[in-house]
Amino acid sequence: MGTMTHLVWRQLIKEKARTFTTILAMAVAATLTVATLIGINSARHSMYQDNIQNTGGLQFVLSKVNQETALAIQKKADISESVRYQQQGQISFADQVPNQPDSPLLMLPKPALQRLIQPILLEGRLPQNEQEVMLAQDLISDVYAVGKTVAAQRNGQHVVLKIVGSYRGYAGLMASDGAVTTGHFDGTKNYAVAAAFGNYGNFYAKLKKLTAQYHVGSDQQRMNELALERAGESRDVKVRAMFVLLVIVVLSVIGLVSLALIYTGINLSVQAQTQRYGLLRSIGATPRQIRQSVYLQALTLALPAILLGLLAGIGGLSLAFHELNRIFKASGNTFQLLLTISWWPILVSGFFMLLVTLLAARRPAKRAAQVSPIAAVRAQSASRKVSQRMLRQGMLGRFLPTPIAKLAYKHYRRLGWSKVTMMTTLALSLMIFIGFTSFFRGMLTFSDETISRQADVTITKTQSLASANFSFNPRRLPGVKRGTVTGTTQVGLKNAPQAFHDRLNVIVVSDQTFGTVFKDQPTIITGSRLVTNSKTGKRQQQWDTPKDFAGTLELANEQSSQKTLTQPMKV
């Protein structure tokens, strides 16, 4: 232990109260940093886990590979879990929808059914034998409903399968127009592998390496892009840049608050040790050694503060997540926050706090090095420079009622950078409080569903629109104040105008609602959102469909014998 280190250590032990106060101030700053970084990482991982459940914990599918390739992929060291299935035929729906391509008939062993189909089961149950089949939701119709049969070609043979259920074709890794059965593998072709890497970090680079090794084309790949995007593995550079920018902004705000807190503690300690620094100068200590002693003192205090901040941040997040999960569960929301502790938030927090500590100690170290031996003997600190502006009474001082108030205001004007530090600390602390309050309020109202939460209870039933009872009035039920029955289907758009997609979601309501609310007029319901213009940097309102559209949309009903229906549509 060097001489300066020994002196710093003795001084810290001697002034226990001041040392504890400074460590506490640093620990508050460290807690903010640790809680923010681990909180962001945990929120992203929680959203990833919530979305990956739709694909049974599997991240991607590589299809149309042979049996040898499928087995080799499953044995790769970086593949943590996987299942295989096989396309064994096809089903034709041309009798219902002309020019409709044949739907693939996929054979999934029971483990694969549980992993890939059970999470997206919409109606009915899973197939239990080779004579049963499930259809994607878009293939379900009055003719091909649950409980009925469908003809298929399987391994070159004509078979009749019983429809036992349907699945959400757009929610998982399966084909959106597929049919799923169970059974046994046959042959060496048309295999598919659904798998997940042990770590989703750098996902697309690992997938590119894997597909290049086994010559798998881009048209043979499907992945759970939503879950990967929530985990920060987005292909969109803008999305990744926005996340990095968010972290930088949050750390900048926390850094300013931490800088103010740590600077105040170190500065007060330096002012209290003016005589000590002067005496060190008188016995031969150089200004450089004095500065080093202040830096060493700051770093010595920072180490236990970082440890306390780590414990307080993780403990506080654990309690907050537990309470939020309890509220989510009570409100019927299945989303759960998972506390995820990884090495990078801890390392970044430690490095960030050490950097902020050194920056905060820079000015006090410079001031300590300027203390002269004479000033130390007189027990005086270096005289502060007072400008003419500080000596003036000021406009506010003229209206203060008492001499004590005027004296306090005069002293405040002469504080210099101290008052700036104090005001900055208060302002940024308020900013962080408002920010975290808004964050938790947003988490309380978070929902991964796209439907509105205005209704207290929403009941969903899968059936054909023709059999739905739209005349039923839920208000007749005891305790129900308001309610309505709606149906949803999807139709195609022929010759779609610009800014429209090739398909349109149609909401069906009762005749009474159609007449009273929509005036017996087919109506387009559109929405808008605020987006930032990448060129001007200004926020502007963007509509999902043209707000001022007035014309005719040609709807192609692909699920009935009436192929095209033309109706005027009003926005």
TrEMBL record:
Keywords: Cell membrane, Membrane, Transmembrane, Transmembrane helix. The keyword Transmembrane applies. It is found in: Cell membrane. Its main location: membrane. One of its GO terms (molecular function) is transmembrane transporter activity. The chain crosses the membrane at residues 20-40, 242-266, 298-321, 341-361, 420-440. This is Antimicrobial peptide ABC transporter permease. It comes from Lacticaseibacillus paracasei subsp. paracasei CNCM I-4270. The lineage of its organism: Bacteria, Bacillati, Bacillota, Bacilli, Lactobacillales.
